[in-house]
Amino acid sequence: MTKQLTGTKEWACKTVNVCMGCSHDCAYCYAKSMAIRFGRSSVGTWKQQTALPAKLLEAGRGKPTRVMFPSTHDITPECLDICMDALRRLLAKGHEVVVVTKPHLECIQAICDWFPYHRDKLMFRFTIGSMSDAVLKAWEPNAPTYEERRLALQWAYEFEFQTSVSCEPMLDTHVEDIVEAVDADVTDTIWIGLMNDVKQRLTLNGASPEMHKMGAELIRQCSREMIGDLYGRLKDNPKIRWKDSIKKMLGLERPSRAGLDI
Ligand code: SF4
């Protein structure tokens, strides 16, 4: 039987990370839930992002391939130096790097400044799950505002980097408004996906009763009917890609090789 790929494997063959914890502290974070489950972190300590210099060696290893960086933390001002070091090693090795981030403008400006000759090998994929700062603040308490993410996208686009947006997880039902707002500054793809394993992750991550209520409401809103209608309206947009959660819900074909869905 062919194994269906999910998560980061849809985008890349390999992931590289150089920190433990993430100051954005998103309520739905998969990396946080796994770190808590396996005793590497706790509800209270996850937001203390710590650089792991020993992990830099992994960035310079292996045959050139498509790498997602980072996948279990984000690129934040406090860990920018080690992230730049990792990017330097990845690009020097000849990897194609997809930088996946809830972008801090100062970090994106620094990356654009430092890697102007790697435009062909470096793609930005900015996560924007809602245009509402109230919604972003509730789910992703320490991540940048919508406006900062939009400015970062514009910046990367104007510097002629390859750009992409990930509306995964969708944090409300206004994803079409995001698509319309970002379309002109996206050179590559716009990904749409659902929040996975909501109750389990919120429980492991120590979410408040209010967050559990928001999670239940989000599940209710993202019904098969709503997602089917969304698919119908956006399926002819050549930039739109559907994450595994949506393909599974709608019975669409799913990739079977890592990094095939780009
Ligand atoms: S930005 Fe990513 S890694 Fe960081 S807490 Fe949020 S989901 Fe987790």
Could you explain how this protein is built, in words?
- There is one protein chain.
- With 262 residues, the protein is α/β, with parallel strands linked by helices.
- The chain has a single domain, classed as pyruvate-formate lyase- activating enzyme (Alpha-Beta Horseshoe), CATH 3.80.30.10.
- The chain is 39% helix and 13% strand.
- It has helices at 30-37, 56-59, 80-92, 105-114, 133-139, 146-158, 175-182, 198-204, 209-221, 224-234, 244-250, and strands at 14-15, 19-20, 50-51, 66-69, 96-101, 122-127, 162-167, 190-192, 240-242.
- The strands form two sheets. The chain has a seven-stranded parallel beta sheet with strand order 1-4-5-6-7-8-9. A two-stranded antiparallel sheet has the order 2-3.
- Strand 7 (162-167), helix 7 (175-182) and strand 8 form a beta-alpha-beta unit.
- Helix 4 (105-114) runs parallel beside helix 6 (146-158) and helix 8 (198-204) runs antiparallel to helix 9.
- The radius of gyration is 18 Å and the shape is globular.
- It starts with 13 loop residues before the first strand and ends in a 12-residue tail after the last helix.
- The model has no long low-confidence stretch (mean pLDDT 94).
- Bound molecules: iron/sulfur cluster (SF4).
- Residues 22, 24-26, 29, 31-32, 72-74, 102, 140 line the site of iron/sulfur cluster (SF4).
- Iron/sulfur cluster binds next to helix 1.
